[in-house]
Amino acid sequence: MLGELNILDWLIVAFAVLLAMRGLSAGFLASLLSLAGVVAGAFLGSRLAPALLSGETLAPYGPLISIAGALIFAAIGEAAARSLGDRLRRRLKDGGLVAALDGLGGALFGAAMALIFAWIAGVLILQAPLSPLLHNPVQRSEIFQRLDERLPSQTLLQTFARLDPLPELDGPDADVAPPDAAILQDLDLQTLGPSVVRVSGIACGVGVEGSGWVAAPGLVVTNAHVVAGEEYTSVQPGGAGQRLDAEVVLFDVRNDIAVLRVPGLDLPSLPTASPIPGEPVAILGYPGNGPFDVRPGRLGNTHAVISSDFYGRGPVQRQVTSIRGLVRQGNSGGPVVNARGEVVATVFASRADGERVGYGIPSPIVEDLIATALQNPEPADTGPCAA
C-alpha cells in the first residue's frame, strides 16, 4: 500500500491519466511508435553535451545540456513517430474490435509510459545540480520510491551518474597469500548488509556515488573524496529504497575520511578492530553503483606512506593498510571486515598499476575521527569537488 502522497505524487497521477486518455485516442500502435521516437530522439539529444563542450567546461554543465538536448530531441522524435502512427491507425476499421483493443492497449501503454517517464525525470533531477527544494519532493515521493525499487534504477544511474573518483595510489604491495573465498560463508551478511550504505550526492553538477558504513547511532563513515564539494548528500541503507538526508560533520582530507550525520538512521553500528597482516577479510560496498557486493580479500601490512591527497596536493603522510583483493570505483568508503564482522579498514584507493590491490585507512585512525565527530557534531565544510 502507498503511504501519504505529496504534491509530486498527485502530479504523477494526473500525468498518468492524461497519457492514458491520449493513448486511448491514439491507440497502441501509434503510442508504441511514439515511444520509439522519444527513445531515439532522447539518445541523439543526450549526445549534445560531449559535442558542444569539452574539458573543464563540460564538468559543471554537461549533465544539464544532456538533459535539455534529450528533452528537445525526444519531443521532435515523438511528433514524427506519432504522425506515422496516426496514419497507420486510420487504416484500422472504425468501431471494430481491432480498433477497440488498439485503444485499450494504448490507454494502458500511455499510463505505463507516464510512470516510466516520471521515474526517469526523478532520477535526472536527483543527478542535476539543483536545489534541495527540488530534490526533497522527489525523494519523499511514494510513487517515485516504489518505481525506483522495482525498475532497474542502477542501470539508469550508471548512465547519468559519475562514479566515485577513486584515487589511485602508487603504494606498497600486499605481499600476502591470495584471498580465501571461505570468509564469505563465515560472515553473517544478513546482519552486516543493512549497515553498509550507498552514499550519493551532487558535486559540480554531476552525481557522485560511493559506499559507507554505520559507525555509531546516526553516523556514517565514508571517504572525503566521495562527498567533496557536494551541495546535497544522501545515504541509502542496504543500497536501495528510501534515501536519507545526510550532513557532513567531519571532513579529513589527509586521511580521506568523512563522517556523516544521518537523522532517522536506525541501524546497528559495525564494530571495529585493528588490522592484522595476513588476515582474511571481505570487501563490502556498491562498486559500479551496482547492488551490494562482497568480495574476498586479504590484509597486507599497514605502512606510513607519503603521497598526494585526492586533490593532488602534497606531500601528505598517512597510515594505509594494503589489501589484496578487487577494489573498484564505488567501493570508496566501504568497510573491510574480518571474519567476525569487525571493520578493520575503510577503502579509499586502488593501486595505480592496475593490480588487484587496494588501500584502506586502518580502523584505529577512523575510530579517532569518529570520536571527534561525536564531540563536535557541527556541519563541516566539504571543500572543492574532487578531481
Question: Overview of this structure, please?
Answer:
The chain has 387 residues and is of the alpha+beta class. The protein folds into two domains: 7-161, no CATH class; 168-375, Beta Barrel (Thrombin, subunit H), CATH 2.40.10. 41% of the residues lie in helices and 25% in strands. It contains twelve helices and 14 strands. The strands form two sheets. The protein has a six-stranded antiparallel beta barrel. It has a six-stranded antiparallel barrel with strand order 9-10-11-14-13-12. A hairpin with a 4-residue loop joins strand 7 and strand 8 (257-261). Helix 5 packs across helix 8 (153-160). The longest helix has 35 residues, at 55-89. Keywords: Hydrolase, Membrane, Protease, Transmembrane, Transmembrane helix. One of its GO terms (biological process) is proteolysis. One of its GO terms (molecular function) is serine-type endopeptidase activity. It is a multi-pass membrane protein.
Short summary:
The chain is of the alpha+beta class and 387 residues long. It is built from twelve helices and 14 strands.
Write the layout of secondary structure elements.
Layout: H1 7-26, H2 28-46, H3 48-52, H4 55-89, H5 97-127, H6 132-139, H7 142-150, H8 153-160, E1 162-163, E2 168-169, H9 183-186, H10 189-192, E3 196-203, E4 206-216, E5 219-222, H11 224-227, E6 230-237, E7 244-252, E8 257-261, E9 280-285, E10 293-307, E11 316-325, E12 335-337, E13 343-351, E14 357-362, H12 363-375
Parallel strand pairs: 1-4, 2-13
Antiparallel strand pairs: 3-4, 3-6, 4-5, 5-8, 6-7, 7-8, 9-10, 9-12, 10-11, 11-14, 12-13, 13-14
Helix pairs in contact: 1-5, 2-4, 2-5, 5-8
